[in-house]
Amino acid sequence: MHISIIMDGNGRWAKMRGLNRLEGHREGVESVRVATEYAVEKGIDYLSLYAFSEENWSRPAEEVDGLMELMVEAIISERDTIMKNNIRFRVIGNLSRVSARVMKRVEEIIGESSSNTGLNIIVFLSYSGKWDIVQAVNRFMDENGGSGAKLDIGTMNNYMATAGIPDPDLIIRTSGEQRLSNFMLWQSAYSEFYFPDVLWPDFRKTDFEIALQTYYKRERRYGKTEEQINKNN
Fold first, then answer.
1. How far is 14 from 20, CA to CA, in rounded Å?
2. Which residues are catalytic?
3. In the chain, where are the structural domains located?
4. Which helix (H) or strand (E) holds 108?
5. 2-232 has which CATH code?
6. Is the C or the N end of the chain the one with fewer CB within 10 Å?
């Protein structure tokens, strides 16, 4: 099972308390820890987190720099927990704009956890769904240009940045906003969506459990009729 979370509401959480936006992001790190623990407890295979979009680079430099520092701090502080819980850590996105210092820490934990076989945590960093589609087409053309080969859905999947990772079964976006914000546009074609009002820094195991229970009550038809699904079952 693949659960994906758009972690929204850090800034509003901070503003409501008269704090700097970075304090909201800092508090959101605890929610990442909570969500990870819950995913391990439930035996979830993949937990992906939309941490920083390509569009987020347009935010004030102070906030961007602070977010990157938080990323480094979180990786350092959670390294032992990741290894102890057999978690495989991965990062996906257009990483060419990410500083060498951040990438050094990212690559270290990716390498150290690469042989772990438990929960896969995928952090989407400097990512956008449109970028992902464009880079997939460009990679295909670089490798097959002039050969007459054509793209189909299966081939496209293999060139996406998420190749080898199952499409998300459930996408949770906190804070009550009801949009994807350029996140996994290709991969979310048949995902279920859940939009709780809770702001990300307040997201706890109870909120995760409610999201899962809501998902389990839904019927995923993938374009088929109810009769076809019942017949196959």
1. 6
2. 8, 56
3. 2-232
4. helix 100-113
5. 3.40.1180.10
6. C
